[in-house]
Amino acid sequence: MKEQQKPSIYSLRLEELELWLKENGEPKFRSTQIFEWLYSKRISSFEDMTNVSKSLQDKLSQAFTVTTMKTLIKQESKDGTIKFLFELHDGYSIETVLMRHEYGNSVCVTTQVGCRIGCTFCASTLGGLKRNLEAGEIVAQVVNVQKALDETGERVSHVVIMGIGEPFDNYDAMLSFLKIINHDKALNIGARHITVSTSGIIPKIYAFADEQLQINFALSLHAPNTELRSKLMPINRAYKLDDLMKAVRYYVEKTGRRISFEYGLFGGENDTVAHAEELAKLIKGIKCHVNLIPVNYVPERDYVRTPKEQIFEFERTLKKHGINVTIRREHGHDIDAACGQLRAKERQEETR
Ligand code: SAH
């Protein structure tokens, strides 16, 4: 019989670790020591925790693993972007991207192996969903990238949950991940430096609003009306645009925070001035920001780029209505840095 994989120690919030210690007859203060070994000293084995008793080390290693993922690929782009392909214990591989900005180093994490949402333009969903990641496997991505940055004395300052997978389809693990990386005894990444993006799973938008976190929230909108959104994103057939906008308004009212709308520009589909006008009307009065994403070319998909001048025209139209808008800067264009591209390529090579 195959041995059951032990949970990752990185999946535990501090209070969960405290509880585990208590149940195992250990003092509570050990939890902060353990967090320090994991997140400040960044050890890769329980044996390295030298101020922790041998008997506790043994108990820990019987109950948990220190998730160490093998780096299958590490590709560095001319602009400093680094793309990692990590191997999980069961042989699946996941992508994590480090992006360098003027304001800091941002890590884009994956939350699922594959995705079941089926957006027609996205590489991550090709091949469907294989499994959810454990919280610890999401945390370990940030820890691993931080370890790579330790070589140059740099720090991961920002995290975006915009890699492969739909974070709201793996909600509990995502929430634990947020709490762990935000904790000052762990990676201490400020809530305002973390962004989560969803394709629009409505019940989870309400739940997320009620969490009252200071985390940045983005919605992949991509269309100004429900017919077009259903065509581009099948999830819109289950969670309709009208109801989605109600959830968005609830989020903004409840949290007082603004929302980011991601709007991919897919040539000939959703990128005319008329679409921009319709979009302005749809989001009128909502405290928001629009991030325009020129389509990333995916070989399996046949979307084409909107011409530059037309992108600017789209931007100007939104601005005219007083909407905050930016055009997403591309990172790592020379290394397939868009979500799912590297993994999709690997998979193709595997099946060849
Ligand atoms: N599943 C979440 C997280 C992914 S975030 C979500 O849907 O929001 C990645 C962003 O890139 C999403 O807005 C997604 O819709 C967008 N995206 C995916 N494939 C793309 C492509 N080929 N071109 C441009 N944007 C794309």
TrEMBL record:
Cofactor, how bound (note): Binds 1 [4Fe-4S] cluster. The cluster is coordinated with 3 cysteines and an exchangeable S-adenosyl-L-methionine.
Chaperone as UniProt keyword: no
Keyword field contains Metal-binding: yes
Subcellular location(s) per record: Cytoplasm
Gene Ontology terms: biological process: rRNA base methylation; tRNA methylation
Binding site for S-adenosyl-L-methionine: 165-166, 197, 220-222, 296
Any one GO cellular component localisation term in the record: cytoplasm
Reactions performed catalytically: adenosine(37) in tRNA + 2 reduced [2Fe-2S]-[ferredoxin] + 2 S-adenosyl-L-methionine = 2-methyladenosine(37) in tRNA + 5'-deoxyadenosine + L-methionine + 2 oxidized [2Fe-2S]-[ferredoxin] + S-adenosyl-L-homocysteine; adenosine(2503) in 23S rRNA + 2 reduced [2Fe-2S]-[ferredoxin] + 2 S-adenosyl-L-methionine = 2-methyladenosine(2503) in 23S rRNA + 5'-deoxyadenosine + L-methionine + 2 oxidized [2Fe-2S]-[ferredoxin] + S-adenosyl-L-homocysteine
Enzyme's top EC category: transferase
Record's function text: Specifically methylates position 2 of adenine 2503 in 23S rRNA and position 2 of adenine 37 in tRNAs.
Note: Reaction proceeds by a ping-pong mechanism involving intermediate methylation of a conserved cysteine residue.
HAMAP family in alphabetical order: RNA_methyltr_RlmN
Protein name: Probable dual-specificity RNA methyltransferase RlmN
Organism the protein comes from: Bacillus mesophilus
Gene that this sequence comes from: rlmN
